[in-house]
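Entry 14. Structure prediction run on the chain below.
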Amino acid sequence: MSASLPRVAIVGATGAVGTELIACLQQRRFAVRDLKLFASERSSGKRLAFAGQSLPVQPLAEDAFNGVDIALFSAGATRSRRYAPLAVRAGATVIDNSSAFRMDSAVPLVVPEVNPDRIAENRGIIANPNCVAIIAVVALWPLHRQFGIRRVIAATYQAASGAGAAAMEELRDATRASLAGERFEPRVLQHPYAFNLFSHDTAVDAVTGSNEEETKVGRELRKIMCAPELRVSITCIRVPVLRAHAIALNVEFEREVSPEAAREQLRAAEGVRIVDHVERNHFPMPLEASGQGDVLVGRIRRDSSDPSGHSLSLFVAGDQLLKGAALNAVQIAERLPPSGIAPR
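Output returned:
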C-alpha cells in the first residue's frame, strides 16, 4: 500500500458499532495502510476479519495510538474521555461516537450531509452525534435550508441496537422465552422487552421531565443545524425491534409549505430516500431501513391541526448502527485530508 494511506484504529472493535465500523471500512473500500483493533481485556486475543486478513484484538493501553492517523472510537464516554486526548497527543484525529465531546464548543458535531465544512475546524476530535439526532437531521436539514424550521415535535421508536449488542441479544432471548411461555428476567434493560415498549432507559430530569436521551437530541439538533432558537419537544421510546430507529416528526416552518414542495427538496437531498406510497400504504419501516445507509422518509402530509399551512408531519426510519453510528463516522473519515490529520 502507498505510504500516504492512513493508519486507522478502532476502539470498541468487538461491540455492535465496532463490528459495523469494520464492515463499513471494507464495504466502502476505505484504503488503509493498516488497521488496529482495540477492545476491553475480555476481548483480547479475539481475531476479526478485515480485507482478507485476520486481525488480532488488542487491549486498550495509553500508548496504543503511536503511529495512528485516524482513531474511530465506539467504547463509551468514559473511555473516550480518558483515551481520546491521548490519541490526539499521539498525532491521531479522533472520530468519537460517544456523548463525551458532543456539546464541547471546541469540538465539531458532524453529519456530512449537513455540515461537512465543520470537519476542517477540528482540533483533533470530531464528535459523531446521537443516533436519533443523525437520522432526524438528515431529513430535517434540506427542509430547514429551504423553508426554515421553527419547531420540531418528535416521538421516537428506538431499536435494541441503540443499547448495544447485549440489548439485541436480550430481545432475542426474551422473545424466545415469551413464545415458550417461560419467565425471563431482564439483564440489560430495566423492563421486559419482548412484545413491550417503554420510555428510553436514561435518567429523567426532575425539573424538565425530559430524560437524558431527549435532552441530548434537542441540544444536538440545535448545534448541528446552527439553530440555537430551534424549539424541540421529543419523546423517546424503546420498542422491540432489533435494529433501525424510526421517528414521527411534526415540523413547523417559518412559512407555508406544501407536501409537494417538501418532497421536491427531500428527493434531491443526499442520504434521503423517499418511501411514500399512499396507494399501497407503504411507508418507512425498520426492516427496510436495516442494512443500508439512507434515511427513509414518508407519510409526508399537512398537519391538519395547523390551519396556517406552516406545519407538516412525516415519518422517518434509519439504521441506527449504520447511518446512526458507524457509517456516519466513516463518512467523516473519508472527508479528512489524505494523511488523516486535519489542520489544527
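The longest strand covers residues 149-158.
Filed with the rest of this week's runs.
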